[in-house]
Every structure is written in C-alpha cells, then in structure tokens.
Amino acid sequence: MPDVNEKRKLLLVDDDEIHLAITGNMLKGEYEIITAKSGKEALGHLLKGVVPDLILLDIIMPNMDGWETYNRIRGISLLRDVPIAFLTSLDGKDEVQQAHEMGAADFIPKSCQKEEFLTRVDTIITNYEEK
C-alpha cells in the first residue's frame, strides 16, 4: 500500500495516442501515470522494475494484443497480484467473458463516462489493497 502522500501508479497501455492522452488527463490529478503504446513497451517498463497499482490494458493492438500482453504480465512473478483491467472499444459478451475467465479485475468500455470510469478505477485499487 502506498504512503499516504504517495500517488498510486497506473500503467496505461494503448496504441492509440489520442486515447492515451484522454485517459491520462482523466486520471492525472489523482494518480502517477505511466504510458505505453504497445504490449512490448509495457513489458519493457515492467521488466525494468515498474510495479504499478493498476494496469489498464487495451485489447486491440498490433503485434501483441491485450490478451497476449495480459498473459505475459501474469508470467512475471513480481506482478501476479497487480490488478489488470481491460479498457477497450470491444464490448461483445465473448470478450467480457474471456476477460473475467482470465482473471481480469474489470472490463471497462472506452465509451464509459468519466465519473463511472474514475469510480471503477478507484474501486479496483481499493479492492486489491484490501486483499
């Protein structure tokens, strides 16, 4: 659990720079934001010792999609307890079910309104800190 004065750290992974900026702006006052434009870049941050309080991961990305990125992150023992939520434009029942079966903390649509989005992020972090 972070120090009272220490901001919680979030890793945002999305190949869409505009969406990274929008999401980062919604979160920037409350959290320390680290961004990655690909699964490979996200893994690079994580393998260098970055341990975020939450990873928000897009699914549709070139080269290494969010599903594969999720599985690779889960293979890093230091990060097994870090919550990962998918933040994506996908909204099919199959994708939601797959995310939950994989153990994702949440499946958040990119169309989610700011207030609901911030509440969901806070709830994920709070729930994982209590474990």
Topology summary:
Layout: E1 8-13, H1 17-27, E2 31-36, H2 39-47, E3 54-57, H3 66-74, E4 84-88, H4 93-102, E5 106-109, H5 114-129
Parallel strand pairs: 1-2, 1-3, 3-4, 4-5
User: Order of strands across the widest beta sheet?
Assistant: 2-1-3-4-5
Through-space gap between termini: 11 Å
Mean pLDDT: 91
**Which structural class do the helices and strands define?**
alpha/beta
User: Residue share in helices?
Assistant: 40-55%
How much strand?
15-25%
CATH superfamily: Response regulator
> What about the largest sheet?
5 strands, parallel
- Count of separate structural domains: 1
Total DSSP helices: 5
Number of strands: 5
The string of secondary-structure elements, in order, is EHEHEHEHEH
Poorly predicted runs of 5 or more residues: none
Shape: globular
CATH topology: Rossmann fold
Subunit arrangement of the protein: single chain
Radius of gyration, in angstroms, nearest whole number: 13 Å
CATH class: Alpha Beta
